[in-house]
């Protein structure tokens, strides 16, 4: 069955799909961190549905919440109508939001993917400000629909001004650290204030507090605060894309809490649906300039996703899984940094909480101008395959696909974390040989 399914899928399915397509696994069962394939092999899943599975696969509280709706006779789909399930989800979500946004927030259910919510956010700020330009960052990823793609750097006709996202490793200014972040902020301010700067009047600025697909790059807290004050002073709505960073992943419930900023708009998806598709935009009520029907859509009322999501949010909150992600993530980073000390092919190890990236490089490059060695995508792909041979699923990311990404569930135990890192170290040694 395993081989047949893989063969038929590779024949029938479009090459346009991405996530994990190169992994020859046919999952038939899953629980927590573990996936079992049709061939009986078991894998530790550190891809977690691209960060969706905050509680891992088939967590009992998630299954219970879904069963409860199914057994209750409640409708599974009623478009935008109010239901007890939706009410419970929204109440739970609002209880987690940073104040003062929580006290003054409106929610728009979008649907059902992260990119839909990004699209809604972009439309919302265009409507509210009457402007059409957009400020977005180098290395960003916001999705695959036209507006979200424009924000990510894809060529479309949305007028985007691309600003330098600060990073230590491969800093666009070749500086990194506080100084690099400071230059990024100054560049942004001077560009916005230059009447001849060629910046189309921005309807908003969209930022990931930690870039995920871009290669796991956490923005410095001080820089996030600068972006907040820069945009606030110029009445530019700030949109935080927390599709991947939300629900405890980075060590706080929402990643904006690290810097303490309060965005005007938050885009949320992935983990908020507790494994099922759900996406929302939350925003200051002042921005709610939409007329009824201005942003409609059929599949925005997924009752099962709301129930699974409410159960997930409550479980993360009650069990302090964000704090757990912070401590366990720091420990895992420490061990990976130890590995980097003995492997020259590891250029950088970085992350926040349980969002971790290991950048692989070619240390023996003879490229004279490189201040850091060039990325090694082929090595990263080899490490991914060696991980797979050892029963570990990891994802690749970064602008050159040279970053191995770990996004384990927040329920990861110490023993599981050790097993993941043991397998990773083995795979690295095999691939780098
Ligand atoms: N924003 C961010 C930060 C993401 O990481 C992603 C998906 N990886 C998206 C938006 C798009 O979400 P989706 O794939 O559900 O459309």
Automatic annotation (TrEMBL):
- How would you classify this enzyme at the top EC level? transferase
In which domain of life is the source organism classified?
A: Bacteria
Cofactor(s) needed, names only, are: pyridoxal 5'-phosphate
Record's InterPro entries?
A: Aminotrans_3, Aminotrans_3_PPA_site, Dat, PyrdxlP-dep_Trfase, PyrdxlP-dep_Trfase_major, PyrdxlP-dep_Trfase_small
Q: Which Gene3D superfamilies match?
A: Aspartate Aminotransferase, domain 1, Type I PLP-dependent aspartate aminotransferase-like (Major domain)
Ranges in coiled-coil conformation: none
Write out the entry's keywords from A to Z.
Answer: Aminotransferase, Pyridoxal phosphate, Transferase
EC annotation?
Answer: 2.6.1.76
Q: In which pathway does it act?
A: Amine and polyamine biosynthesis; ectoine biosynthesis; L-ectoine from L-aspartate 4-semialdehyde: step 1/3
Q: Does the keyword Nucleotidyltransferase apply?
A: no
Q: Does the keyword Transferase apply?
A: yes
The text of the family note is: Belongs to the class-III pyridoxal-phosphate-dependent aminotransferase family.
Q: What is this protein called?
A: Diaminobutyrate--2-oxoglutarate transaminase
Question: What is the organism of origin for this protein?
Answer: Streptomyces formicae
